[in-house]
Design a protein that fits this description.
Strand content: 15-25%
Radius of gyration: 20 Å
Oligomer: single chain
CATH architecture of the largest domain: Alpha-Beta Barrel
Distance between the termini: 46 Å
Structural class: alpha/beta
Number of strands: 16
CATH superfamily of the largest domain: Enolase-like C-terminal domain
CATH class of the largest domain: Alpha Beta
CATH topology of the largest domain: TIM Barrel
Length: 402
């Protein structure tokens, strides 16, 4: 069997997605997600102009060799564009392998380690009362874990708070919108929010919160300590991860668990954090961390150091990526949580899939391969629409991490 075609499909069924379709001479094909939110066309060009020509004639079963070929052979290693492109190829090849073997991908990864994949949803609102209403809605849907984000008094907008509660999409304009941020207002407000949520919903519900890289290490330590009475499952991305020594300072001051890594692209981005046990959950994901092959390497390293998975799963990950993530989640021994933001009906129609949600768990498809497809005719009806992620400034106008 040989690869005869590698097509890049760009579509926008309510948001932009990039998909790689690899076709073989025996008619078997595989899909890989190549979506990089706000920079989609950079990956599409990388795949179309630089990667696709290299795949023609290759044996699709040589998954590891192809990964190394694309990673080491490019010389310019790592980075989100390169690793998202590599991930698309790798994921598509696993899809092909599963179809040829007649098995769902998780069976090729060693089989089930659990009955289902525990997922968390996003409860958000401008006020605390709004948040309580949204948390209740997720509890009614059977969710066992909920991320809580709220508006901050005195700020016009806040990360994670959306008008469409089920389909949050921050890339909202062709030219980035600008938000205003105040760490002081935020730190003063957040503990009171979680006090209300715990009082309303008790100790059993898993609660999470995303700081979104906005604090310094000592500020994050203060936040973590103030949240300890409310027993969060994790505090996500408390600081920018460029300086990983900062996580050591956070650890010295709080026992609130830390999750990080949705912007990481390789195991080398998180090796220190994992090896020194400076985090509790690693949030790397299939599409941005080199595909199923490399994500499994990251999670295997994490398992040696009591770190669990908590993969990113926002709506900028297409159903192709979500399907792939579930096959990894169901198989690894150190699974923690899986983020799950539902896609719109238009997205689900373009990407028909066999995974399903029930009672707080996602279940991977039992079909051979990933169990997801793409309707190319329908995809063509949704042309690309420029959309950028916002930028963030302090109240005095200084640029700040978004």
């Amino acid at each position: 069997m040989r690869i005869t075609d590698a097509r890049v499909i760009v579509t926008c069924p309510d948001r932009n997605f990039v998909t790689l379709k690899i076709v073989t001479d025996e008619g078997v094909y595989g899909l890989g997600d190549a979506t990089l939110n706000g920079r989609e066309l950079a990956v599409a060009a990388y795949l179309r102009d630089h990667v696709a020509p290299l795949l023609i004639g290759r044996d699709p079963s040589r998954i590891e060799d192809t990964w190394q070929y694309l990673y080491k052979g490019a010389y310019w290693r790592r980075g989100p564009v390169t690793m998202t492109a590599v991930a698309a190829v790798d994921t598509a090849l696993w899809d092909i392998l599963g179809k040829v073997a007649g098995l769902p991908v998780y069976r090729l990864l060693g089989g089930r380690s659990r009955a289902g994949v525990t997922v968390y949803g996003h409860a958000n609102g401008e006020s605390v009362d709004d948040v309580l209403t949204e948390v209740a809605r997720y509890v009614e849907l059977g969710y066992r874990a909920v991320r809580v984000q709220t508006g901050v008094p005195g700020l016009a907008s806040t990360y994670g708070v959306s008008t469409n509660k089920m389909f949050y999409e921050p890339a909202d304009a062709a030219i980035p919108t600008e938000n205003v941020w105040s760490t002081e207002r935020y730190l003063a407000h957040v503990p009171s929010v979680f006090a209300r949520v715990r009082e309303e919903f008790g100790p059993a519900l898993k609660l999470l919160h995303d700081v979104h890289h906005r604090l310094t290490p000592i500020e994050a330590a203060r936040l973590g300590r103030s949240l300890e009475p409310f027993a969060l499952t994790w505090m996500e991305d408390p600081v920018p991860a460029e300086s990983q020594d900062g996580f050591r300072l956070i650890r010295q001051h709080t026992t609130t668990p830390i999750a990080v890594g949705e912007v990481f692209n390789t195991v080398w981005d998180c090796e220190q954090l994992i090896r020194e046990q400076l985090i509790d959950y690693i949030r790397t994901t299939v599409v941005h961390a080199g595909g199923i092959s490399h994500l499994r390497r990251i999670f295997d390293l994490a398992a040696l150091h009591h770190v669990r998975s908590g993969s990113h799963g926002a709506t900028d990950l297409s159903p192709v990526c979500m399907a792939a993530a579930l096959h990894v989640d169901i198989a690894i021994p150190n699974f923690g949580l899986q983020e799950y933001m539902r896609h719109t009906d238009a997205t689900d129609a373009v990407f028909p899939h066999g995974y399903r949600y029930a009672d707080g768990y996602l279940h991977p498809s039992e079909e051979p391969g990933l169990g997801v497809d793409i309707d190319e005719d329908l995809a063509a009806k949704y042309p690309y629409r420029p959309a950028s992620l916002p930028v963030n400034r302090l109240e005095d106008g200084t640029m700040h991490s978004w």
